[in-house]
Specification:
This protein is of the alpha/beta class. The protein has an 8-stranded mixed β-sheet, sandwiched between helices. Strand 15 and strand 16 form a beta hairpin. The protein is globular. It starts with a helix and ends in a 7-residue tail after the last helix.
């Protein structure tokens, strides 16, 4: 067996790349080091079959992947917003460490703080250790940082295709809208991305690869061809759990932080007869992107790499579809933090389910460990391979989600604890209240529970990075301005 440490490109004492290319070691390299295929789905909540988040969900390809993988049913984003969530995953650093709380240009991440200045992006780490790297679509917030991949297949601007006029929701500050459009799957950018990465999988590679495919749907606008709407007949669509005045028992700062005036509210959707239409459109968008996932997985199965490739599928955060009177992400409640995380190692142990609280921040060290690479000591996430070996293994950790400076949610198997920057709190017992309808934070009998959960709060609360900007609400817009950041909508 080859000595892994000495065989890695870029490690001390390694043979030169030229020597490798002129030897039979390349064949051994391809056998020794697993490939990685990372599938990223934008704004995907738990409405997929393996997570049973909605009874109408139809995701046969994600279901098939989960049938030979470990599904983490209690996985949470480190931030409930695309930009900071993806920056955290790619750097292996928490938002509270970097100050990246809002969106950030891909090439500004390293300039965001002292902590990110010398960070090595996840793809770069594999690249530095002898892997060929390729990506397409939305991987970082916009595209990919310059030089982070060997090959990049590009991404359309925005989240098109777009109509000349929106169907229903005309607020210019948001992509939010819903309806059947365009006519064919081939007109959707995700379809092109799936085929681009499928072509890469059909290519003969002379060394291990790390590939990432970033899909746009179900990010708004919820536009997909009519056939995906037909898969979810409107009369059969079930509405999510919702109660009026759900926010009556949350602190005032929670209402400010989660106020997104550009989005429709559930009250508006009910009064105007659009709630079921929106649910149908989101379900249709999820089913469409599932078909794109299927294109890639089918290509992998037909390739020479099927038996030596780790597959990981994740969403960058969750999404409210009417729960708590919102159609948005950008909150610290379960709907916005919980997201799919499915990991299939090269040598899978079959279908497994773990309810241990984990974070997308854990992806970096997990993939590094799974592929036998040296540990990156700057990673702040935790290696999940013990849970891949035993999904019920002892796990004393909590998942932490941060939304703006000093606003955190702590998630365990039983509780969600939220503390805001002014000290206000929320507490929910998920064994009794999965919908988070009853805030227990002011109940004296839970004082000790809160103290224990507070031990998981970040030790560092970095100020807003001047390189970030926020495009969600007036409260955080003012925060970015105060921090000297761009503060643009």
């Amino acid at each position: 067996m080859i000595n892994r440490r000495n065989f890695l490109l870029g490690s001390a004492g390694v043979a030169t790349a030229a020597a490798l290319y002129n030897s039979d070691w390349l064949t051994e390299l391809k056998k020794e080091y697993p490939n990685v295929l990372m599938l990223i789905v934008d704004d995907l909540n738990d409405w997929v079959g393996p997570m049973q988040g909605h009874p109408n969900a139809k995701t046969p390809n994600i279901d098939k992947l989960a049938g030979n993988a470990t599904t983490f049913t209690n996985a949470h984003a480190s931030a409930p917003l695309c930009g900071p969530s993806r920056a955290s995953i790619m750097t292996g650093l928490a938002p509270s460490t970097t100050g990246i709380y809002g969106h950030i240009n891909d090439n500004d991440i390293r300039a965001a703080s002292d902590k990110t200045a010398h960070s090595i992006f996840l793809s770069e780490y594999f690249k530095d250790h002898g892997y060929y790297t390729a990506a397409v679509g939305k991987v970082f917030h916009q595209r990919v940082a310059d030089g982070s991949f060997d090959d990049y297949g590009g991404r359309v601007k925005g989240f098109g295709p777009y109509r000349d006029e929106k169907f229903v929701w005309n607020d210019p500050r948001t992509n939010t809208d819903w309806g059947a459009f365009p006519e064919k799957d081939e007109q959707m950018p995700d379809y092109d991305s799936a085929h681009w990465i499928a072509d890469k999988l059909a290519t003969d590679h002379d060394k291990p690869f790390f590939m990432a495919c970033g899909f746009l749907r179900p990010h708004a606008p919820w536009y997909v061809p009519q056939k995906w709407f037909d898969m979810h007949p409107i009369e059969q669509v079930q509405l999510p759990p919702y109660i009026p005045k759900d926010l009556a028992d949350v602190p005032e700062i929670a209402k400010k932080v989660t106020d997104h005036p550009m989005m429709p509210t559930t009250e508006w959707a009910l009064e105007n007869g659009h709630y079921r239409d929106i649910v149908q459109a989101y379900l249709a968008s999820v089913s469409f992107v599932d078909s794109c996932v299927g294109i890639v997985l089918d290509a992998l199965e037909k390739s020479a790499y099927a038996d030596n490739t780790a597959v990981v599928l994740w969403g960058d955060h969750g999404y409210h579809i009417g729960e708590k009177d919102k159609f948005a992400k950008m909150t610290l409640w379960e709907r916005a933090t919980r997201t799919p995380l499915i990991i299939k190692p090269p040598k899978s142990q079959g279908k497994q389910v773990s309810n241990k609280p984990v974070s997308l921040l854990d992806l970096y060290p997990t993939l590094v460990k799974m592929c036998g690479l040296p540990e990156n000591p700057t990673n702040e996430g935790r290696d999940l391979t013990p849970l891949l070996n035993d999904p019920n293994a002892k796990w004393q950790h909590a998942a932490v989600t941060t939304y703006g400076e000093k606003n955190h949610a702590i998630k365990t198997e039983k509780y969600r604890y939220i503390r805001y920057e002014d000290g206000s709190e929320e507490l929910y017992d998920h064994t009794l209240d999965r919908n988070e309808w009853r805030n227990l934070a002011t109940d004296p009998q839970y004082a000790e529970v809160k103290r224990e959960l507070a031990k998981h709060l970040p030790a560092i609360d970095a100020p807003w990075s001047e390189k970030t900007y926020y495009d969600g609400n007036d409260y955080f817009l003012q925060k970015t301005v105060e921090a000297g950041a761009k503060g643009r909508m």
